[in-house]
Amino acid sequence: MTDNTIRFLLNDELIILENIDPNLTVLQYLRDIRFQSGTKEGCASGDCGACTVVLAELAGEEFNELNYKSANACILFVGSLHGKQLITVEHLKEGEALHPVQQAIVDFHGSQCGFCTPGFVMSSFALHKAVSSPDRAQVVEALAGNLCRCTGYRSIIDAAMASSADAAPDSFARHYHQTVAELKKIHLQSEAQLSASGHHFYSPTNIDQLANYLLAHPKATLLGGGTDLALSVTQQLNTIDKLVYLGNVKELNGLRETEESIIVGSAVPYSLFTPLLHQQYPELGEMIERIGSTQIRNNGTLGGNIGNASPIGDMPPALIALGATMTLRCGNSTREMPVEDYFKGYKVTDLAESEFIQDITIPKAKAGQECKVYKISKRIDDDISAVLAAISIEIEQDSVKNVSIAYGGMAAIPQRAAACEAALKGQPWTQTSIDAAKQALTQDFQPMSDVRASDKYRMTVAQNILQKCFFELQNRHVETRVVNYA
Ligand SMILES: Cc1cc2nc3c(=O)[nH]c(=O)nc-3n(C[C@H](O)[C@H](O)[C@H](O)COP(=O)(O)OP(=O)(O)OC[C@H]3O[C@@H](n4cnc5c(N)ncnc54)[C@H](O)[C@@H]3O)c2cc1C
Ligand code: FES
Ligand code: FES
């Protein structure tokens, strides 16, 4: 049965939304409709963290647990709140007593103009709920998506460190079971929708409902975390007629492992699939931890990164180099394809009408395989790549047995460096071979200049990455020999 409303908890109040334009963001809803102005607007593009809220969503086999995660309210469509608790900064205080994360900001002088403060408080709160006794690196990571122009970060980090050591149960812990029960009543089992001003939002709960809806509405827009899509509304002022939300489709939110591969549902956010990938490919795991911010990785999905087909999306080059494949579904039919074949031209893909990416299969690491990933951006955190290179290589007896190299930011699509690979495959792993590979790269790519980098910079850095990879693997090789001699 389809429910014509979106239902969620705003703090501890049950909200039933109907007749609201689904292009509305959570930030607009909070500030313009609810007049809750504690959540701030800085950039409206997911970059500054001033709008950070926390979502508690049902998790676990029996849906008896809550998963707390930070999110940028400015790029979250209101319909994606269905079945979740939206926690805002106004709700942290108990009576006159500040929540420990708020009190710590006061105690450590972590606020000057205060504009960024609610966002920092909410990111610290999400960390406080999700990780007990985090170390400094975890605190820095949790706060990397929040910008402050006044205070400097040390006092804020110190505050988050201090409050995270406070293990006393807060009001959220005391009301945990009640919140779970309230969210369960919202019937995540049933479809939900929202319509107004000729715009529709549909949230199916299983893959058949999704497939059937897309057959009936082939022009509908698939919505994962919305971390790309929402920008077309908040930055380019477009409106989207029909949104189909994938976040509640059970089959797209699964994560499976076989002996040979990891299978990631297209709607699984980065923060959930990264640990598994990290075990197989540590450098890839480290790179993913630099995609956007914690807020972005809590909501952005693998399907969205591929579906967006940006030439500077970070996952496609890595997936291509690793030989990942994906399953596409349309109606009752499915087809498999290498991720490499999905991209046809600038933002043009092989996705047919009514079709969607179901899941992505990533082969596990083989003995002797090295996966090197290099993300080149102006900042370490929360920055889009100028160039991204992924290199999967097997070196046996000092020569290159297998190699697969893919770049982002070098062409209109994420692409293999075929000439470069040919220059290396079967060749000795030497500086001469690397020089030939660097030269071959000029046959593979004629990069463009844009705000992130010039064509010359891109080519130079792409060649230097090959050199760096050579030195890194060479050094590892030398170290192994020293150990063997000893
Ligand atoms: C501040 C900020 C920083 C960012 N930093 C990075 C970064 O460092 N690296 C990076 O690569 N990206 C970055 N992004 C972009 C974005 O977060 C990622 O591309 C993310 O993976 C998109 O996933 P999503 O679920 O939010 O996609 P959505 O916005 O929901 O969708 C994106 C596109 O994919 C389509 N789509 C979604 N799911 C499917 C599916 N299952 N099948 C077919 N099509 C589908 C949608 O219709 C839409 O066209 C950043 C974005 C922001 C706002
Ligand atoms: S307002 Fe800047 S991230 Fe949302
Ligand atoms: S206190 Fe002013 S921006 Fe952070």
UniProtKB/TrEMBL annotation:
GO molecular function term, any single one: iron ion binding
Domain FAD-binding PCMH-type: 194-367
Domain 2Fe-2S ferredoxin-type as annotated: residue spans: 4-92
Keywords assigned by UniProt, alphabetized: FAD, Flavoprotein, Iron, Metal-binding, Oxidoreductase, Ubiquinone
Superkingdom, natural source: Bacteria
PROSITE patterns recorded: 2FE2S_FER_1 (PS00197), 2FE2S_FER_2 (PS51085), FAD_PCMH (PS51387)
Stored Pfam families: CO_deh_flav_C (PF03450), FAD_binding_5 (PF00941), Fer2 (PF00111), Fer2_2 (PF01799)
Protein name: Xanthine dehydrogenase small subunit
Organism lineage: Bacteria, Pseudomonadati, Pseudomonadota, Gammaproteobacteria, Alteromonadales
Gene designation per UniProt: xdhA
